[in-house]
Structures are given as structure tokens and as C-alpha cells.
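Action item from last meeting closed. Structure (169 res):
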């Protein structure tokens, strides 16, 4: 059994509980861990003038090169309106550029700029810090096991989301 590491800011239950609810239930733990990750990510990304989600856009562009905007959104699993808003912010910051595709000007190709590419080492340090904080109190083997288990949960929830009413509409 892994010892629970208490946070100094744990005055209230992590999840609101109703009769029969358990704050150590899988759903509550997932929700709380996800929320904590999001808050930590937002704080660390703010130090390098990024918003959550923009890191994923930049990482996809660095890994796969220039992309059609719609393909990038699909690759990241986000809708086009969210992608457009994220790209507008990244463009205003000078980190990416969008240009029309010559064969079909309705399509945009997204690329990183030199300023965006220069941000890569700083983003890597943020990602390393997030990993360090998330893994605090865990052995490397426990981290590996946790990642494998979360991959199963991710696959289960993504499969469910694909078959949910309204999915793909």
C-alpha cells in the first residue's frame, strides 16, 4: 500500500460528499487529481506566458512539423473553435503563424515561429517540474505502473466519449 501524501492545503474534503459518496472513490480521486494537475500546469505555464493547452499545440507542432489547423485540432482531440482561440493567442504572442494553403485558401497551415521554437527548452523544464511534483512520494516503478493504469482509464473514457450521444456532431 502506498502511503498517502497530505497536502498542507487540505482543510476541506477534496470532493464534496453526499451520503454514500466516498472521497477516495475512483471518480473523486480522478476529478481531484485532474483539477490539481490543471491548477499546477496553469501556474507553471503562466511563468513562461502560456495557457494550458497551448503547450500541447506547441508540442504537436515541434513533433510533427507544420500542420493543417483542422488536422492539428483532430490530433489534439479539441474542437475547431477551441483550436482557433488557442492559435489566436499563440499568434498574438508571436509563437506560431498561420498561412493559407495555396491549393485551398480555406485551409490554414500552422507553423511555429523562431520565437516559438526558442520557447521549447523552457517548456521542457516546466514539463519536467510538473512530472517531478506529480511523482513526489512515488518510486520510479510506481510512476510506471500509474502511467500504465492511467493509459487504460484514458482509453476507457475516450472510447466512451466517442459513443456518447452528440459525439461527433
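Sequence:
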Amino acid at each position: 500500500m502506498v502511503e498517502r501524501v497530505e497536502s498542507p492545503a487540505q482543510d476541506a474534503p477534496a470532493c464534496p460528499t453526499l451520503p454514500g459518496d466516498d472521497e477516495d472513490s475512483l471518480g473523486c480521486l480522478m476529478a481531484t487529481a485532474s483539477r490539481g494537475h490543471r491548477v499546477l500546469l496553469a501556474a507553471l505555464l503562466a511563468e513562461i506566458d502560456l495557457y494550458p493547452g497551448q503547450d500541447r499545440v506547441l508540442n504537436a507542432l515541434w513533433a510533427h512539423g507544420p500542420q493543417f489547423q483542422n488536422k492539428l485540432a483532430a490530433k489534439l482531440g479539441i474542437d475547431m473553435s477551441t483550436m482557433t482561440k488557442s492559435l489566436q493567442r499563440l499568434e498574438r504572442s508571436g509563437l506560431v503563424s498561420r498561412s493559407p494553403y495555396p491549393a485551398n485558401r480555406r485551409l490554414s497551415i500552422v507553423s511555429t515561429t523562431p520565437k516559438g521554437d526558442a520557447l521549447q527548452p523552457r517548456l521542457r523544464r516546466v514539463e519536467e517540474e510538473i512530472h517531478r511534483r506529480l511523482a513526489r512520494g512515488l518510486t520510479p516503478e510506481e510512476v510506471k505502473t500509474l502511467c500504465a493504469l492511467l493509459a487504460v482509464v484514458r482509453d476507457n473514457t475516450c472510447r466512451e466519449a466517442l459513443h456518447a450521444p452528440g459525439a461527433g456532431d
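Note appended to the action item: Helices lie at 26-46, 54-64, 69-76, 80-92, 114-118, 120-134, 140-162.
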